[in-house]
Amino acid sequence: ICEAECPPQCIYIVMERDGMGTEMSKPxxxxxxxxxxxxxxxCVEVCPFDAIKMDQHYEIATDNRFGxxxxxxxxxxxxxxxxxxxxxxxxxxxxxxxxxxxxxAAATKAEAEAAKAGAMKKPPTENIQAPISKLQ
Length: 136
Prior knowledge:
2 domains; Alpha-Beta Plaits; 43% helix; elongated; alpha+beta; 3-stranded antiparallel sheet; single chain
């Protein structure tokens, strides 16, 4: 969506494919041509995954205007501490959501393990025969 909505068309995405040729949900190539980008942030607004965050680093110089200003996915990825500096409120909100999701996943896993352990501890009630002496 962000690639299609970008006014100067500076975002290049090629989706990864599995062995059958079906598109997977992650990109194989995700590049942004900074020499064309006008920092309008439309891509940030329309991204359904909140995967694009604009930083405030606008002074970029390179000796190669074609290759040096084409930023690949690895160059675009920043650590979470970086976003705590430039967008602290949003970064804290994202951290809270991630912590909540992690806690829910841990609770679900613990419940599944407890249920599995409880099922294993139950003695088998089938095929239990009473002693013959008590039947007479």
